[in-house]
Amino acid sequence: MIPFDFLPLVWILIVLIVLVACTALTTLTDAIAVDVSSSGNRVRFFTYYSVVQDFGAACGPAIGFFLLSFHFGYETLHWMWNIACRAYLIMEANSMAKEKL
């Protein structure tokens, strides 16, 4: 558990580190999206990518709080999200392998 009696400077440093990490991850996912997209469908792909990313950011907290109302707890939500992401990555890897054949 994080103690809440940190000095304000420590909290500012923690927030700055989290912001830098989030920016790095966003840049990384954007670079991966550029690699995955084909040159012919790039505009369509990035439109879809932006809409899905914004939709997930908008609906994710609402869905999470809705699921918390059923008393699942944060640990259960974490594992549900973890399993969903891994399943998605496996499906994407399979579809990319089929495209290369």
Descriptive overview:
- The protein has 101 residues and is mostly helical.
- 82% of the residues lie in helices and 0% in strands.
- The protein is built from 3 helices and no strands.
- The chain has helices at 8-36, 42-68, 74-100.
- The longest helix is centred in the N-terminal third of the chain and has 29 residues, at 8-36.
- The model has no long low-confidence stretch (mean pLDDT 82).
Secondary structure elements and pairings:
Layout: H1 8-36, H2 42-68, H3 74-100
How far apart are the termini? 49 Å
Give the H and E element order.
Answer: HHH
Largest sheet: none
Structural classification: mainly alpha
**Beta strands, count:** 0
Using the CA coordinates, give the radius of gyration: 18 Å
Q: What value does the average pLDDT take?
A: 82
Helix content range of the residues, please?
Answer: over 70%
Q: Stretches where pLDDT falls below 50 for ≥5 residues?
A: none
Percent of residues in β-strands = under 5%
**What is the tally of helical segments?**
3
Oligomer: single chain
Shape, per Cα inertia axes: extended
Protein traits:
101 residues; mainly alpha; extended
Brief write-up:
The protein has 3 helices and no strands. The chain has helices spanning 8-36, 42-68, 74-100.
